[in-house]
Amino acid sequence: MADTLEFNEIYQEVKGSMNDGRLRLSRQGVIFKNSKTGKVDNIQASELAEGVWRRVALGHGLKLLTKNGHVYKYDGFRESEFDKLAEFFRAHYRLELAEKDLCVKGWNWGTVRFGGQLLSFDIGEQPVFEIPLSNVSQCTTGKNEVTLEFHQNDDAEVSLMEVRFYVPPTQEDGVDPVEAFAQNVLSKADVIQATGDAICIFRELQCLTPRGRYDIRIYPTFLHLHGKTFDYKIPYTTVLRLFLLPHKDQRQMFFVISLDPPIKQGQTRYHFLILLFSKDEDISLTLNMNEEEVEKRFEGRLTKNMSGSLYEMVSRVMKALVNRKITVPGNFQGHSGAQCITCSYKASSGLLYPLERGFIYVHKPPVHIRFDEISFVNFARGTTTTRSFDFEIETKQGTQYTFSSIEREEYGKLFDFVNAKKLNIKNRGLKEGMKQSYDEYADSDEDQHDAYLERMKEEGKIREENANDSSDNSGEETDESFNPGEEDDDVAEEFDSNASASSSSGDGDSDREEKKPAKKAKVVKDRKPRKKQLENKKGKDPNAPKRPMSAYMLWLNANRERIKSDHPGISITDLSKKAGELWKAMSKEKKEEWDRKAEDARRDYEKAMKEYGMGSKSESSRVEKSKKKKKKQEKQVKGKAEKKGSTSKSSSSTKSPAKNTNESFKSKEFVSSDESSSAESKKEDSEEEGVASLPPSSEDSASGSD
Predict the structure, then answer these.
(1) Other CB atoms within 10 A of residue 234 CB
(2) 326-381 residue pLDDT tens
(3) Residue 670 predicted with pLDDT over 70
(4) Beta carbons of 273 and 234 less than 8 angstroms apart
(5) CB neighbour class for 42 (10 Å; exposed up to 12, middle 13-18, buried from 19)
(6) Is the dihedral of CA 401, 402, 406, 411 positive or negative?
(7) How far apart are CA 476 and CA 480, in angstroms?
(8) Less Cβ crowding at N or C end of the chain, within 10 Å?
(9) Domain 111-187 fold
(10) What pTM was computed for the model?
(11) Topology agreement, domain 4-99 and domain 111-187
């Protein structure tokens, strides 16, 4: 028979909430590890007193009772696993796994039994429900009535807050059944009462979460935070972990207390209690106990009189009372020599501490991430500047944490740390390239080197190589480069023509005309390359055969889907790089196969081009002839139009003296300017008519001479 049994997706009932995790049964005892908090419950085999198997809402459950009265409940088993568990309990724990079903009659009267930490309401021999007394926050009595109040469950949408029991009066003299009921509950309930004197008091400590200055009173079973506005009582059983973290300025210390369940203030939950100390602050502490009690309770971990730094005294007292180790940063050192990294999480700036078994961020909001719950990490480029990068962590539950604005000098240290801890790096290929560039320039001037710029250059080279392989290398599609000299010559010609057309106008008009060509010059410069580009695009024949692909592109098109299926979610850039690596690592024999396919495609292309050239030769000659014919006709029409314009001008000049006799006197300047402008307008009209219409007939010319 196997020495161990392991079960995944088992749920432990703790204070009304179901926490999933893994359960392991061995010869030494029972171990349950919470997936959410990482907390481990260890029950020694010698402590087990009873095991009960029963049907519950999530299938079947296992209830374990220990000799000191503690109860542990685990749900999520299948019915077929009973025989295996019963045999294991008999062989290794010498216990019979008893089967007990819950009563489902629906009656609301019965018998209450107190057993260890459990209140059981039974009907006959079957239990109806059980209440762990550690869930009780308060117990009040009335006439024949007892009221139990419970701690609020933050993980449940609806939680049970109160239960009332009616206790009938009895005829026994001197014994009040209501008071006896209440005393049994209070003896095991999680009711915090500040009875007696505190072991020690720390005055006016600076607390970051919850924010303010608090007096901390240390009691044997709980911690009391007393502030000006709020009070908090924290049982030592809710303390999950302790952290002592040095500030980056080397002058302050953080003392972090991880809590589960958290302390509450209204709707706000504080999962971490963070205290900030100055290293220079010292204290002399005297415990409110005699030396014998101190020695008996703390076994040398504390003494009655102690002195030293304030943060050392607080952490030392907490470690002794909570009985948990204090976690400190490991051997990680950042670029500046500090054991943390300055970064931002959400909207606030803080410090990220890489620990031996996880990461912790302080302080707003505090975050603790264990290595065993990390799915992968990712190094991403900063969104606003290349001087920083982002560090992303995604957990197995799908939660993502992004720590941004990390200085790029920290990249090498952080990458080495993550690599040494064997965490899965999402974009490992690119990051290794970045790491090499960082090491290569480690001793150079950091202001002149940008690791992310080097990375983008490498990605640009990859895209350029792929583009060169897939493009047809046709010169017809390229844009013309801007040539200032050629553009200036074209503009000057337009200036000359405009200037000659307006040379006969007045001085006032000439000033206005000289300003207009400057605007035209701007238009010409902007539009001319665009016009040439459009003409080039129109000149390309869509029916022409396409250029053949290279051997690499033929292979990539055939294997692209396979690469995507092997690497789900891969980006286009990463796919291109991965394909390049596979192609580079391919053997010469396999490459020759694709080279042959590329050679066949090239021959087919040359053959198609020859056929296309023979078919299009006659077509091109026909188009050439039609263009020449059209140009010849346009020249003839233009010449006849100019001839007609000259004859009409001479006839109008012979008739002008007769007309002037009937008109008022005009100065020489006025007449010359008026005639020149009218002549220009007539010339423009005649040119437009000549281009738009056929040459005039003989009848039209005769009527014009009259």
Answers:
(1) 19
(2) 998 888 888 888 899 999 998 889 999 999 999 999 978 899 999 988 999 998 87
(3) no
(4) yes
(5) exposed
(6) positive
(7) 10
(8) C
(9) PH-domain like (2.30.29)
(10) 0.49
(11) yes
Please determine, for residue 132, whether its predicted confidence score (pLDDT) is greater than 70: yes
DSSP state of 147: E
Strands 48-56 and 17-25: unpaired
The three-class DSSP label of residue 205 is: strand
Give 210-258 pLDDT, tens digit per residue: 889 999 998 888 888 888 888 888 888 889 999 999 998 889 999 999 9
How far is the C-alpha of 680 from the C-alpha of 673, rounded, in Å? Answer: 11
User: Three-class SS of residue 631?
Assistant: helix
DSSP string spanning 322-381? Answer: HT-PEE---S---TTS-SSEEEEETTEEEEEEE-SSEEEEESSS-EEEEGGGEEEEEEEE
Q: Which residues, 6 or more positions from 234, have their beta carbon under 8 angstroms from its beta carbon? A: 222, 223, 224, 225, 257, 259, 263, 273
DSSP assignment of 513-525: HHHHHHHHHHHHH
CATH class of 4-99: mainly beta
Cis bond before residue 169 (omega within 30° of 0) = no
Residues facing 276 on adjacent strands: 206, 254
Do the bridges between strand 326-327 and strand 239-246 make them parallel or antiparallel, or are there none, so unpaired? parallel
Q: Which two tokens stand for residue 633?
A: 């006709």
Q: Which fold has domain 200-327?
A: PH-domain like (2.30.29)
CATH number of 341-421: 2.30.29.30
Among 10-19, 161-170, 609-618, 691-700, the range with the most confident prediction by mean pLDDT is 161-170
Spans of all domains in the chain: 4-99, 111-187, 200-327, 341-421
Exposed/middle/buried for residue 304 (C-beta within 10 Å: 0-12, 13-18, 19+): middle
Q: Name the residue type at position 171.
A: Q
Mean pLDDT for 466-487 is 46
C-beta of residue 368 within 8 angstroms of C-beta of residue 346: no
Amino acid symbol at 321: L
pLDDT in tens, 383-418: 666 788 899 999 988 889 999 889 888 888 899 999
- Helical packing angle, 451-470 and 551-566, nearest 10°: 120
Cα–Cα distance, 215 to 440 (Å, whole number): 53
C-alpha of 25 from chain center: 39
Q: Using H for helix, E for strand and C for coil, what is the string for 226-276?
A: ECCCCEEEEEHHHEEEEEEEECCCCCEEEEEEEEEEEEEECCEEEEEEEEE
* Residue 589: its H or E element: helix 588-662
- Give residue 516's pLDDT band: very low, low, confident or very high (50, 70, 90): very low
Furthest-apart CA atoms within the chain: distance in Å: 151
d(CA 511, CA 529): 30
Q: Residue 666 and residue 18: Cα distance in Å, rounded?
A: 110
Residue 480 DSSP label: P
Average pLDDT over residues 189-194: 61
